[in-house]
Amino acid sequence: MVGFKKVPTKAVLSIFLLSIILILLLYVDFSTDESLPEEIIETTENLEKKPTDVLSYKIHTVKNGENLSIIFEDFNVPLNTAYRIFRLDNKKLLSKIKPGDEMRFTYLGNEITNIEIGKDSINSIIVDLTDGISIKEITQEVELVRSFKSGIIKTSFYESALEAEIPDSVIMDFAYIFGWDVDFVFDIREGDSFFLVYETAFSNGEKIENGDIVVAKFINNGNVYKANRFFTSVNKKEFFDDSGNNLQKAFLRAPLDFAYISSHFNPKRMHPVLHTIRAHNGTDYAAKRGSPVRTTGNGTIKYSGRRNGCGNEIVIQHTNDYSTRYCHLDKFHSGIKKGKKVIQGETIGYVGSTGLATGPHLHYEFKIGNKHIDPVKLKLPSAEPISINLRSDFDTLVENNNMMLKKLESLYPNE
Predict the structure, then answer these.
(1) C-alpha–C-alpha distance, residues 212 and 229, integer Å
(2) Cis before residue 413, ω within 30 degrees of 0?
(3) Structure confidence at residue 157 (pLDDT)
(4) Which of 155, 181, 189, 323 is nearest to 252 (CA)?
(5) 55-139: which CATH architecture?
(6) What is the mean pLDDT of residues 389-414?
(7) At 83, is the secondary structure helix, strand, or coil?
(8) What is the C-alpha to C-alpha distance for residues 73 and 150, in angstroms, rounded to an integer?
(9) With contact defined as beta carbons under 8 Å apart, do 185 and 291 qualify?
(10) For the ranges 1-10, 153-162, 308-317, 366-375, which has the lowest average pLDDT?
């Protein structure tokens, strides 16, 4: 029997080769295997988020008839907290609350933490509720900044002072201080000069009060006028010349600021409306309608109303049988009525043209007893001079003021 060798078929060989290839591929794969990253599954709990507490505040201005109990209730101050606040107010600070005071309520979320009550620009009351309850008064630090100004009058004092960058309120104060000796309408001359030092109060970088004149010098038509601020008592400020004479007189020289005289005292003047010779027993000041009219001295209103050609009129009775009269007013200032006491410089009415008037102006009369006096030429009596017991302090003040003015004048006019 002849032996024979079994020859594999093509199909078997193909399967064999394919198997070899698969084995080789698996070997390579395992030899270079890098672990696959694990799949991480995170689970979160659905927790409810707490809202963040927000700091906020509310402002309230105290009105007439309001009390703190009602205000606290309106601004969500708990009743027991309000009771504790009142009980702990040993100094009775909260009893000083008045209309116009500004209250600031601070909250953290819905909880009140602080109540601030502003009394003025620097004083306030703080009720702190963050750690128990505390009530205290706070006074902000005040810084006084001095300004040095000077100028030459070209047309009017007011315009020249504005050119020198002097605040409006300080200009008015300057005219008021020297207003007993100088009529800033009638007496001003081109070439007149002025020098002044004033203080302005600041707190936390903000102006809290208008400037206050420390010392001023005015050269008018060759005459030199000086004003030194001096406190004769804690709250009483007055102005004196270098010799200690009080600049304040019993009467102001004029009842208006920065008007001009349109008609002088004249017993034989031709009346502009009636066209007849009629005595002009006063001085007419032309000014814009609505300009404030001030009383020239302390006194009591004897008459206030509308009468004849004077139109709206006010008559004031002063001491020593002096009286003054103000005519053609557009209207009276609030509260002006017969019997009211007024002080020098107080606004009593406003310029108009009521009665027999050709245009807006003030007719001003001055009488001693029954005799009319020309108010422009009247020599005004002075107030009290520096007292003997204050003389030494005053002389030191004048010396310091003169040094400041000397320095200012050395810079003038190229300040």
Answers:
(1) 9
(2) yes
(3) 92
(4) 181
(5) Roll (3.10)
(6) 88
(7) helix
(8) 55
(9) no
(10) 1-10
Give the per-residue pLDDT at 12. Answer: 62
Q: What is the dihedral of CA 266, 177, 294, 211, to 10 degrees?
A: 150
Residue 408's nearest CA partner among 184, 154, 215 is 215
Token couple for 49: 């988020």
Which helix (H) or strand (E) segment is 178 a member of?
Answer: helix 168-178
Question: Tens digit of pLDDT for each residue in 22-45?
Answer: 666 555 554 554 444 444 444 444
Measure the CA–CA gap between 84 and 89, rounded to whole angstroms.
9
Class of 260-373 per CATH? mainly beta
Does the structure show a pLDDT above 90 at 251? Answer: no
Please report the pLDDT score of residue 44 as a whole number.
Answer: 45
Give the largest Cα separation in the chain, rounded. 181
Any residues with CB less than 8 A from the CB of 211 and at least 6 apart, and which? 147, 167, 169, 170, 173, 198, 199, 200
Class of domain 141-248+382-415 as given by CATH: alpha beta
Of 305, 315, 314, 316, the closest CA to residue 250 belongs to: 316
Q: pLDDT of 54-111, one tens digit each?
A: 889 899 999 988 888 889 989 989 999 999 999 888 888 888 888 989 999 999 988 8
Is residue 209 packed enough to be buried (19+ CB in 10 Å), middle (13-18) or exposed (0-12)? middle
Q: Residue 351 class from Cβ within 10 Å (0-12 exposed, 13-18 middle, 19+ buried)?
A: buried
Residues 165, 173: Cα–Cα separation, whole Å:
15
Q: What's the confidence (pLDDT) of residue 8?
A: 56
Same fold, 55-139 and 141-248+382-415: yes
The conformational region for residue 61 under phi > 0 = left, psi -120 to 50 = alpha, else beta, is beta
d(CA 90, CA 85): 10
CB atoms within 10 A of CB 163: 13
Token pair, residue 116, equals 């601030």
Could you state, in order of their start, the residue ranges of all structural domains in the chain? 55-139, 141-248+382-415, 260-373
Would you say 105 and 68 are in contact if contact means Cβ atoms under 8 Å apart? no
Distance, CA of 269 to CA of 249 (rounded, Å): 30
